[in-house]
């Protein structure tokens, strides 16, 4: 059933807290909420607006939490889509990708660059993107 809109907004707001510990926990919370309810537009929007920008945070532990959620919610499912193309269209990652605004793309691009530099992108990701876009 998820959080009320006010509670969800409060968690999203905590992603901008002065304390790195609070930002990190808020990012983890938004990721868990979205993983539990991937079809919820409110949870998707809160994760995009709250957690995704934390991929550029000045605190490494906050950045790592945001990158972990990006991997879990977007990259691994995208890489797995190549293995089962017949099921790819029903994956919950498509609504998440559709909800990304132009304002969120720089954070996503930065996060992908950081993950690639760290060797954390799933090996099949490039093939998956090529296969799904062709």
Any chance you could write out the topology, listing elements then pairs?
Layout: H1 5-14, H2 20-36, H3 41-51, H4 60-81, H5 85-88, H6 93-99, H7 105-117, H8 125-133
Notes on the structure:
The protein is mainly alpha-helical. Helix 1 (5-14) crosses helix 2 and helix 2 runs antiparallel to helix 3 (41-51). It is 69% helix and 0% strand.
Main attributes of the structure:
single chain, mainly alpha, 69% helix, globular
Helix content: 55-70%
Give the SSE order as H and E letters.
HHHHHHHH
Distance between the termini: 37 Å
According to DSSP, the number of beta strands is: 0
Task: Enumerate how many helices there are, as a single number.
Answer: 8
Helix/strand/pairing category: mainly alpha
Using only C-alpha atoms, the radius of gyration works out to: 15 Å
Largest β-sheet summary: none
Would you kindly provide a brief summary of this structure?
This protein is mainly alpha-helical.
